[in-house]
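User: Just a sanity check before I run the rest of the batch. Below are the structure tokens for the first item. I only need the designed sequence back.
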């Protein structure tokens, strides 16, 4: 997730109480995993083996029972065949990872972003629980959560849990914030490498389509690399090391009013989880209430080289003003982005001391709009790409 501004102070109670959903099986698996991980991390190995306990009792059927079975109506045989078909149906194992979690006493990252008198960690859990409930209505899928209570987990532990349940995909759920409190929109981060990119980008774009239908602006599917050329985000990197594709869904910005209005209630958070589930289900061709014998294979193009992020701001940024109608000035604003896309622009009337809110760019390299100007203003524009890099004009 992007760097968070922690300057906001809590002035009231957390508006969404912690959701307590107990799962003995989950707790047993995780406690064993966490203990094992702690020992292995000391030795410099973050890998953790999951444990599963399964037991089946078998008994020999008596001749009487065999006779009863032979007299079973045909409808029962059909039902048994359908049950067998369901057991043979392909199953996707999806791990949902509610971002953050824990008291945040010694590690503030456990809390996540802190705005609007609440913590990100509570909101991501609400979204994950709603996504789990929605996905459970589809066939061909098993859903697991890295946490279903407010508890601290390292990124290695989250990835190792996904490996322990045989995950086909991990979806890490987050909310965003920005240092200048001006950005808005949904975005998805994925691995930059081969099949991990193809699978993450495909699922991510499908989820973004659902979120934009709900009302968010899409900032796109993106990658980010660290100084050594590996994936920057730990959960993506750790999962890739274990052979599991992962993506981070940043639903919107807690510190921006228009985004916050789409996620400020329990009902809104449930909608986000349902939208995420619908996007994932659509990508894999899942159907509600039905287990398919075969799942359609997603069309995925595996890149030959790492998909690198855009690290340069927009180019050729300039503006022109001319007389317009009603005494207003017609502004032509120009910006070129060859690696990603131009996303926003803002302006200052006082030479860059203060700026307007961010406006969406639209399409094309130039946009036009009217402004009421007196001629005394020191007009400055800034043009941003979807990686939040910007180029300004001269005053």
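Assistant: Here's the designed sequence for the first item:
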């Amino acid at each position: 997730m992007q760097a968070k501004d922690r300057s906001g102070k809590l002035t009231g109670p957390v508006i969404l109480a912690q959701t307590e959903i107990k799962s003995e099986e989950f707790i047993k698996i995780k406690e064993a995993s966490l203990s094992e991980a702690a020992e292995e991390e000391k030795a410099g190995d973050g890998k953790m083996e999951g444990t599963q306990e399964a037991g089946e009792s078998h008994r020999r059927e008596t001749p009487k029972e065999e006779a009863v079975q032979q007299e079973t109506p045909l409808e029962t045989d059909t039902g048994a065949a359908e049950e067998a078909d369901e057991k043979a149906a392909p199953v996707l194992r999806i791990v949902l990872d509610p971002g953050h979690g824990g008291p945040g006493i010694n590690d503030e990252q456990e809390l996540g972003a802190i705005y609007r008198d609440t913590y990100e960690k509570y909101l991501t859990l609400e979204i994950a629980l709603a996504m789990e409930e929605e996905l459970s209505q589809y066939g061909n899928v098993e859903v697991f959560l890295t946490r279903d209570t407010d508890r601290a987990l390292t990124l290695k532990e989250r990835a190792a849990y996904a490996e322990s349940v045989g995950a086909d995909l991990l979806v890490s759920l987050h909310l965003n914030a920005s240092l200048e409190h001006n950005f808005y929109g949904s975005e998805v981060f994925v691995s930059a490498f081969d099949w991990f990119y193809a699978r993450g980008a495909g699922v991510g774009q499908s989820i973004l389509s659902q979120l934009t239908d709900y009302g968010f602006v899409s900032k796109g599917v993106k990658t980010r690399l660290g100084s050594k050329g590996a994936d920057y985000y730990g959960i993506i990197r750790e999962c890739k090391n274990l052979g599991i594709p992962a993506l981070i869904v940043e639903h919107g910005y807690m510190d921006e009013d228009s985004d916050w209005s789409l996620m400020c209630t329990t009902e809104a958070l449930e909608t986000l989880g349902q939208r995420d589930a619908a996007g994932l289900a659509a990508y894999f061709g899942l159907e509600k209430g039905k287990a398919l014998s075969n799942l359609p294979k997603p069309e995925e193009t595996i890149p030959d080289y790492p998909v690198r992020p855009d690290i340069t701001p927009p180019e050729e940024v300039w503006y022109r003003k001319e007389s317009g109608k009603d005494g207003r000035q017609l502004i032509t604003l120009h910006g070129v982005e060859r690696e990603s896309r131009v996303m926003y622009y803002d302006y200052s009337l006082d030479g860059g001391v203060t700026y307007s809110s961010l406006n969406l760019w639209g399409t094309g390299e130039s946009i036009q709009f009217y402004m009421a100007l007196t001629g005394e203003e020191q007009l400055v524009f800034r043009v941003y790409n979807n990686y939040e890099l910007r180029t300004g004009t001269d005053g």
